[in-house]
């Protein structure tokens, strides 16, 4: 039986899976690790951690019952957004940890760009704005703060490009990963922007010339790697791309208008489209499918499920105790929270526990409960947290529609949040859209596997696949939707109202602008 392998390098774990010609998962394995945070706002990882995890996951999958390594016809790698990329020397040896997506150390570079670069032109060329989230500002930090590393750097490689090199010996960057760097990628021309690279003071020769589609074959599996895993030498290695776009593909997003919300530790809502307006505060890059034509535009909250976990861990010890060893505090909170009216009896929650990404883009934004009284109990605050994260979702969706994107009339949700029936209903009511979820676990590694399957000729992604079961989970209530419309208006007013206070409170914790 012919198979392919999808790999996803995540922020806290790597996962690999083997799928067949119908996209069904035959084997899977994951391996965890940690993010290095040596200073406040810093977040980095050495790529050897990823490589070791990839080899461990591949070995475990290929040793699973019923899996024959000789049947594998292709491998594809999805990865976290690698920010700066990995600085490697001429021997492709890493010189410095990768400054990953959550790293915020480049605030000084952000302010320099705002002061010296025509931001309208930057947006027109790249389809993106400026923030320390973006890789180009992190590259500027490396050049300014680590000049010795910068001088020795031959290439700056996204995580999947580096792993592809270790697998195949070939250097290439997929368009999805290149576009997500922002600042230096011409989104319309699908190539590096010489004008912006020069304006930002970066070095064109540190960016590989070979840009490829996410579904393109980068090279063949090296004999040494193949022998260690039992795979065939020369097995095609497919370029892959950014994990958010890969997970969106796995959820069935293959044409303009398809949109998916991934709600786990963070929240990422993305839509397939063919136009972009950087002024609306979203992030755009070529999609991992049909990347010559389609764009993946997304926005997200830094703390979604993380907001829920923070609240439960901090305030709900009694509920944890009541749940016992085999239960969950959520099981204690949800029944009472479900009985509350929309709006949690006058509470609003801003989910900015680590600053915020789109469309706010403010590292100094902070979280808050508004409307607290002696009447409120833990289940009120719990529901308010679910609603606050969902308002952040709608905030991003509205930014997408303001770009002129026409969305499908339903929303697909994937990730850990789908385990909560209450949260799914809140999402339907807040967004005024029926919510669909998958019965199976749909994630980025599966998207990578689907691309590998298409490259190997086993799958046709233009046709319906049997890789998952999509079910209608919730439909919106008109009464609840009307109430949430009013609350959402207040939610949108809170950030600009509280912003000066947030910034003053955080003045001693976040580098000044």
UniProtKB/TrEMBL annotation:
Keywords: Kinase, Transferase. CDD domains: ASKHA_NBD_FGGY_RrXK-like (cd07804). Residues 261-455 form the Carbohydrate kinase FGGY C-terminal domain. Residues 4-249 form the Carbohydrate kinase FGGY N-terminal domain. It comes from the Bacteria. It is an enzyme of class 2 (transferase). The keyword Kinase applies. Its EC number is 2.7.1.-. GO terms for molecular function: kinase activity. Pfam families: FGGY_C (PF02782), FGGY_N (PF00370). Belongs to the FGGY kinase family. This is FGGY-family carbohydrate kinase.
């Amino acid at each position: 039986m012919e198979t392919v392998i999808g790999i996803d390098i995540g922020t806290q774990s790597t996962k690999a899976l083997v799928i067949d010609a119908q996209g069904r998962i035959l084997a899977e394995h994951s391996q965890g690790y940690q993010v290095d945070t040596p200073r406040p706002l810093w977040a980095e990882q050495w790529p050897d951690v990823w490589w070791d995890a990839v080899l461990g996951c591949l070995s475990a999958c290929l040793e699973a019952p019923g899996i024959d390594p000789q049947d594998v016809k292709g491998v594809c790698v999805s990865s976290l957004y690698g920010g700066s990329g990995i600085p490697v020397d001429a021997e492709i040896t890493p010189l410095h940890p990768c400054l990953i997506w959550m790293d915020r150390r480049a605030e000084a570079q952000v302010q320099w760009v705002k002061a010296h670069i025509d931001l309208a032109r930057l947006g027109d060329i790249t389809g993106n704005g400026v923030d320390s989230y973006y890789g180009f500002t992190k590259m500027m930090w490396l050049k300014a703060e680590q000049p010795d590393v910068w001088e020795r750097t031959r290439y700056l490689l996204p995580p999947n490009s580096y792993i592809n090199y270790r697998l195949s010996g070939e250097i290439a960057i997929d368009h999805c990963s290149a576009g997500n760097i922002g600042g230096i990628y011409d989104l319309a021309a699908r190539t590096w922007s010489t004008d912006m690279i020069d304006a930002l003071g970066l070095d064109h020769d540190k960016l590989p010339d070979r840009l490829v589609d996410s579904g393109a074959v980068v090279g063949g599996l090296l004999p040494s790697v193949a022998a260690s895993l039992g795979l065939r030498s020369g097995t095609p290695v497919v370029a892959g791309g950014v994990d958010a776009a890969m997970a969106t593909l796995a959820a069935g997003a293959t044409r303009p208008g398809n949109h998916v919300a991934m709600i786990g530790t963070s929240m990422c809502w993305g839509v397939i489209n063919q136009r972009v307006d950087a002024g609306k505060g979203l992030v755009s890059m070529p999609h991992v499918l049909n990347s010559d034509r389609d764009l993946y535009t997304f926005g997200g909250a830094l703390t979604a499920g993380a907001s829920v976990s923070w609240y439960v861990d901090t305030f709900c010890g009694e509920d944890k105790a009541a749940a016992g060893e085999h239960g969950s505090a959520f099981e204690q909170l949800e029944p009472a929270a479900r009985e509350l009216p929309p709006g949690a009896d006058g509470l609003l929650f801003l989910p900015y526990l680590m600053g915020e990404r789109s469309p706010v883009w403010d590292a100094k934004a902070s979280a808050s409960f508004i409307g607290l009284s002696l009447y409120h109990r833990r289940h009120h605050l719990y529901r308010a947290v679910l609603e606050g994260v969902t308002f952040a979702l709608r905030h991003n969706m509205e930014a997408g529609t303001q770009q002129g994107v026409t969305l499908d009339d339903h929303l697909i949700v994937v990730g850990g949040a789908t385990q909560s029936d209450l949260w799914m209903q809140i999402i339907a009511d807040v967004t005024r859209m029926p919510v669909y979820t998958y019965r199976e676990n749909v994630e980025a590694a599966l998207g990578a596997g689907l691309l590998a399957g298409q490259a190997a000729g086993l799958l046709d992604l233009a046709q319906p696949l049997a890789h998952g079961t999509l079910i209608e989970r919730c439909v919106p209530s008109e009464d609840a939707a009307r109430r949430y419309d009013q609350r959402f208006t207040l939610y949108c007013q809170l950030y600009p109202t509280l912003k000066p206070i947030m910034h003053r409170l955080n003045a001693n914790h976040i580098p000044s602008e």
